[in-house]
Specification:
The complex is a heterodimer of chains A (317) and B (53). Chain A is an all-alpha fold. Helices cover 73% and strands 3% of the residues of chain A. The N and C termini of chain A lie far apart (67 Å). Chain B is mainly alpha-helical and 53 residues long. Classes of the chains: A mainly alpha (317), B mainly alpha (53).
Chain lengths: 317, 53
């Protein structure tokens, strides 16, 4: 063990650390692979649902660029947030706060991947999608991470836009324009983000308080957060049926989205109702777990519905 | 100026990590070559043969 002190944003992050190991696995962890997998899935949905066609190879390249761009955003986020990550139980083992990767390397890694993914998307697919990807990386790394996260309890509401853009970028990769129809795919993730992250913040509020991150439960209290979770979950219902109303998904999707939306509202209601002690904690954890499944299933339904339309143009019945 | 530089001997773990990084970078560069080659074929298609020389 050697004594390595890391200085981030003027703050001393940690004391004794193992010497930076710069392992390939640690660089992979900088990409936030679990977030990347969701980005790949939602961007793929955008590509498949978009009107028009794209060569399968170019679709794969578009997906690769969007996912690497998302990974670059994650690396830039971990570079800047190393000081607060070190103070939170959930994030203290990340490569930069744990001292396994020096901050400068994380920054260089993020910038190289961001530049490379945008340029490749522009050269191989189209420059509108590339510009959109560049804006998304900027939005996550600068607007959310550097500005909003530490300054407002609405951080994840506005910052959630960065996570909601990938299906629109996928759509743009096919059409070459930013189509208003793709906003429905954006809205689903955008409105899903607050109940998802606030459920996490409910049972991790002490972590955020220790790190000085103004998450809603820390600033406005647990009760106000539970109310906001319920409101956003209810708004999710009409937003999730927009793909049907806009005509690019069918009845299969509509029925599934309504059932999933009802379960989400029921889970959010349980969080609102079971306020005290262990029950409240458990309800928040259940909502958090279900919210991940919810988003996956909603997008899976969009894909399944498209498959039904393609293979059974006259209907299944 | 004597120009002498002191070098530190890398530990076994550091050598192993460096080797894995080198392999990963080589694989990524190889993949990029394939990506650019195939993308060029896909985007240009038969136009490569049709061009005026």
């Amino acid at each position: 063990m050697s004594d390595v002190s890391i200085h981030m944003n003027g703050a001393k992050v940690a004391g004794t650390h193992p010497a930076p190991s710069d392992c390939v696995e640690d660089y992979f962890a900088l990409l936030k692979p679990r977030v990347m997998s969701l980005v790949i899935f939602t961007a793929m949905t955008g590509i498949i649902l978009a009107p028009g066609s794209i060569h399968p190879w170019l679709a794969v390249i578009a997906l690769l660029c969007i996912s690497v761009g998302a990974g670059a955003s994650g690396a830039l986020n971990m570079w800047y947030d190393a000081d607060i990550d070190a103070k939170m139980q959930r994030t203290e083992r990340r490569p930069v706060p744990a001292g396994r990767i020096v901050p400068d390397n994380a920054l260089a890694f993020g910038l190289i991947l961001a530049t490379g993914s945008v340029l490749l998307l522009g050269v191989a697919v189209n420059w509108v999608a590339a510009g959109f990807l560049a804006f998304t990386i900027f939005f996550y790394a600068v607007i959310y991470t550097i500005w909003l996260k530490r300054s407002t309890p609405q951080n994840i509401v506005i910052g959630g836009a960065a996570g909601a853009f990938p299906p629109m970028i996928g759509w743009t990769a096919v059409t070459g324009t930013i189509d208003p129809h793709s906003i429905a795919l954006f809205l689903i993730i955008f409105l899903w983000t607050p109940p998802h992250f606030w459920a996490l913040a409910l049972f991790r509020s002490q972590d955020y308080a220790n790190a000085g991150v103004p998450m809603l439960p820390v600033v406005a209290g647990l009760q106000a957060t539970r109310k906001q979770i319920l409101i956003y979950s209810i708004i999710m219902l009409p937003a999730s049926v927009l793909p049907f109303l806009l005509g690019y998904s069918g009845v299969t999707y509509l029925v599934g989205a309504c059932i999933l939306g009802a379960v989400l509202v029921w889970r959010a209601w349980a969080v609102y109702r079971d306020r005290a002690g262990e029950d409240g904690h458990r309800a928040a954890k259940r909502l958090f777990g279900f919210s991940i499944l919810y988003l996956f299933l909603i997008y899976l339904l969009l894909l399944a519905d498209r498959a039904v339309t393609l293979f059974f143009p006259g209907g299944v019945l | 100026m004597t120009g002498e530089v002191e070098f530190r001997t890398l530990s076994e773990a550091e050598v192993k990590a460096r080797r894995k990084r080198s392999i990963a970078i080589a694989l990524i560069l190889g993949a990029l070559v394939i990506v650019f080659f195939v993308t060029t074929l896909v985007r240009l298609g038969g136009n490569v043969a049709d061009r005026v020389i």
